[in-house]
Write the structure tokens for this entry.
Amino acid sequence: MNEPLLLGGIEAGGTKFLCAVADRNGTILTETRIATTTPAETLGAATAFFRDARRDHGALSAFSVGSFGPLSLNPLAGDYGYITSTPKPGWENVDLLGTLREGVDAPMTLDTDVNCAAVGERLFGSGQGLDSFCYVTIGTGIGVGLLIGGAPHGGANHPEAGHIAVPRAAGDAAFAGICPFHGDCLEGLACGPAMRARWGVPAEQLPADHRAWDIEADYIAALCATLTYVIRPDRIIVGGGVMQPQMYPRVRAALVAKLAGYDASMRTIDMCDYIAAPTAGASAGLTGALALAYRTATRQWPMHWRTAEPFHVNKETADA
Ligand code: ZN
């Protein structure tokens, strides 16, 4: 007989915090969606939610947060658990874990939103059966989660592959880039707001045959080439609002051109399989956070969780 488990999870995003408490089978017992406004308001509401959950369901066994960053993830660092140098107004140097701890009395872990989404994809999506893959999201920013040897990867702190330097795409020499730290790093050239700054309209409004997509695909392919050379994953899952359907064939073709046949193991690979869309659904990050909590409590992944999308936090607005 398995002892009861109560798992807490948060997917902390730039527009919303999805919070949930689940049992050992991944069944959601209570959940809420909180708008990301000020740290005091948002973290106060999240803390109150978990305090109420404790009253109604009992103490949590473990708790995990998947958050936007950058984050301090080194437990030995003085600012462990903080959101650090984020350009998001008001959220710089915020003690995320410390504040939530006021409502949660359980072992707590923190990882990036993209690493948690990668865990969600491994359980229910395009990462099933794979031990090493990359999860890339291209939207407000460019985030890269790495699942290596079956676990989310982090070193002294989490990687920031969205900010690598990339060669300029043909015909894009004039655009300065918008990264507040680097200007024309990958994110500065290719995130959603960069496309809007370059073309004057949101990416979704550009026609599918606009040359913007070739330039964008060249940058995403540059990231995929780097990930291929550094990690040589089984797959690169690429999603986010900018990854419109017309992007996938362009990225695959640009990647083949960039690799130039150098790595023999890549010559025969099925590019449609290698560069794939995410399929775990809009709550993959929350799923991943709860799975991390499960792993904290049991030292195992919840491979028995069977539902493709077990969470229903405001499904109709989850993509907002
Ligand atoms: Zn940058």
The chain has ten helices and twelve strands. The chain has a mean pLDDT of 92.
